[in-house]
Design goal:
The complex is a heterodimer of chains A (about 190) and B (about 300).
Chain A: E1 11-14, E2 17-27, E3 35-42, E4 48-54, E5 60-61, E6 64-75, E7 78-83, E8 89-93, H1 94-97, E9 109-115, E10 118-123, E11 127-135, E12 148-153, E13 158-162, E14 170-174, E15 179-185
Antiparallel strand pairs in A: 1-2, 1-5, 2-3, 3-4, 6-7, 6-9, 7-8, 9-10, 11-12, 11-14, 12-13, 14-15
Chain B: H1 3-33, E1 37-38, E2 44-45, E3 58-59, E4 62-64, H2 69-77, E5 82-90, E6 102-111, H3 115-133, E7 138-141, E8 144-147, E9 153-156, H4 157-164, H5 175-186, E10 196-202, E11 211-212, E12 215-226, E13 229-236, H6 241-259, H7 267-273, E14 279-285, H8 286-294
Parallel strand pairs in B: 1-5, 9-10
Antiparallel strand pairs in B: 2-4, 3-4, 5-6, 6-14, 7-8, 10-12, 11-12, 12-13, 13-14
Classes of the chains: A mainly beta (about 190), B alpha+beta (about 300).
């Protein structure tokens, strides 16, 4: 597409990397060529960058789309998902998921951003419920302020929880901050 | 967008739209008092001035006006000595905080003068508008107080670029670098508290202006900047028919080569240049003038329906 068709929110390829145009500024001397200043979000690694272009520049649109997927299982460093519309399976590498892998348990529904047929990133639910598989026994009790202790969740993620949480409890975790929210199920 | 959103949006613009109408009236009065004739010329024409960086919009094989300049000069060539016009102009793809593809230009021309007179006229029109609006000598625009007292600074392009961009485009007229530095280095760093006329542009960047006597590297072209807004562009008009035809032919060839765009030679205009007397003319962006007097950051605040609402 010609640069004059690029808008805020357009997704374009630059040197093989898809970017989202977050801000687009059009400047032009009356008789001169147009200058386009973009704030761009790299859709692969999430980094942000500013670039200046001139009129006449051509871009390829980035064919970025989203689909809903259910996390099925993990196989080594591969996370296997299923498209909930077509039931087709697709794989995302652990390195691409980064910290998000800490909050994926079987059955979790995520939104996957795809470039053509290649997954780029997932959006997790804001809250996930995960089981505590290991927890230290609290060393102190009867204090006024809430004490925290370390616990391990079923995904292997280490988290600080209140001292009353026991192994086998299920807790709610905020995936944006990675922190404990509340206990949802107490182990009988 | 719902009907209610549109109602609210247009209600918010009401103050600026009233101001806009008042400014038009003030400027009409100014020209009528000076003995100018208000004219209207076609919005659609068979050929427009070939300009590489101004892309026209076509309408059933005709071109929508990018500026009424060629028609205004054909009137001058026929003996109309003082004329003005408010007109809608169209330039493809121009959309931003200061741009809409359809916008309003005020153009006026005088016989027997050069670009110096255009600067004097502009000073008078802008200060008369400020007086009529009761803004006083100090205008507040986007956080800066602008002192409109006369005369305004005249700064040559050579001086402005040497100081603010570190090079002289009149010696090395690199158009791409010139355009980029104009918007990113020069205009943002002019004195924010004073209007400025940038004068004497590199000769290749003024295809309708005459060259400066004694310095053929520059053309008698001037642009007015106030508060970071490019408000007006004026020339001492080129009245040499042969030279005008050669310049247009070169521009047409470049447009074809670089953009594969067909720009026809404006034959009727070229014919009229033979009778063009010494004259000067100017185009002033009315939307931007209204922005300046409405303390508006975006052109959307001074027109009811931009291309996004049209």
């Amino acid at each position: 597409m010609d640069i004059s068709e690029v808008r805020k929110g357009s997704k374009i390829m630059i040197e093989g990397v898809p970017y989202n145009v977050e801000e687009a500024e059009f400047m032009k001397p009356g008789k001169g060529s147009a200058i386009y200043r973009y704030k761009l979000r790299n859709l692969v690694d999430g980094s942000s960058t500013n670039k200046t272009y001139h009129s006449g520049e051509k871009f390829t649109g980035a064919n970025v789309n989203t689909r809903e997927g259910q996390f099925l299982y993990r196989e080594g460093s591969n996370f296997i998902f299923m498209n909930t519309d077509t039931f087709e399976q697709y794989t995302i590498e652990e390195t691409l998921l980064g910290d998000k892998s800490h909050f994926l348990k079987e059955g979790t529904i995520v939104t996957t951003m795809m470039l053509e047929e290649k997954p780029l990133d997932i959006t997790l639910p804001i809250f996930v419920e995960l089981k505590v598989t290991k927890s230290d026994i609290a060393t102190k009790t009867d204090t006024v302020t809430a004490q925290l202790k370390s616990a391990t969740l079923e995904t292997g993620y280490q988290i600080d929880v209140p001292t009353f949480i026991k192994e086998g409890d299920t807790i709610k975790v905020d995936t944006r901050t990675g922190t404990y929210v509340e206990r949802v199920v107490t182990k009988k | 967008m719902t009907d209610d959103d549109e109602r609210q949006r247009l209600e918010r613009l009401s103050h600026n739209l009233r101001r806009r109408a008042f400014i038009y009236q003030t400027i009409r009065d100014f020209f009528n008092q000076q003995g100018f004739l208000e004219v209207e010329t076609p919005v659609r024409s068979s050929a427009i001035a070939p300009e590489k960086e101004i892309i026209p919009i076509q309408s059933e094989g005709w071109f929508l006006s990018t500026s009424p300049e060629l028609f205004m000069k054909r009137l001058l060539a026929a003996g109309y000595d003082r004329i003005f016009q408010f007109s809608h102009c169209f330039r493809k793809g121009e959309r931003g905080a200061y741009h809409n593809p359809e916008f309003s230009l005020l153009e006026w021309y005088r016989q027997g003068v050069n670009y110096e007179q255009m600067m004097l006229d502009t000073e008078q029109i802008v200060t008369a508008t400020a007086a009529a609006l009761g803004t006083g000598p100090n205008l507040l625009y986007r956080g800066n107080t602008i002192d409109l007292s006369l005369p305004w600074d005249r700064i040559t392009i050579a001086d402005a670029f040497q100081k603010l961009a570190g090079w002289d485009p009149t010696i090395d007229p690199d158009a791409r670098r010139f355009d980029e530095d104009t918007v990113l280095k020069v205009v943002p760093n002019l004195n924010p508290h004073r209007p400025a006329f940038l004068i004497d542009y590199p000769a290749p960047m003024a295809s309708l202006a005459r060259l400066k006597p004694g310095n053929p590297r520059v053309a008698e072209r001037v642009e007015l900047f106030i508060g970071g807004l490019e408000l007006a562009n004026a020339y001492s008009e080129l009245i040499n028919q042969k030279e005008q035809e050669i310049r247009f032919r070169e521009e047409i060839a470049q447009i074809k080569k670089e953009q594969n765009r067909v720009a026809p030679m404006p034959e009727k205009f070229i014919k009229a240049v033979a009778n063009l007397p010494e004259c000067a003319g100017i185009a002033l962006g009315m939307d931007r003038l209204v922005m300046l007097f409405s303390n508006a950051a975006r052109i959307d605040e001074v027109m009811p329906f931009t291309i996004d609402e049209a």
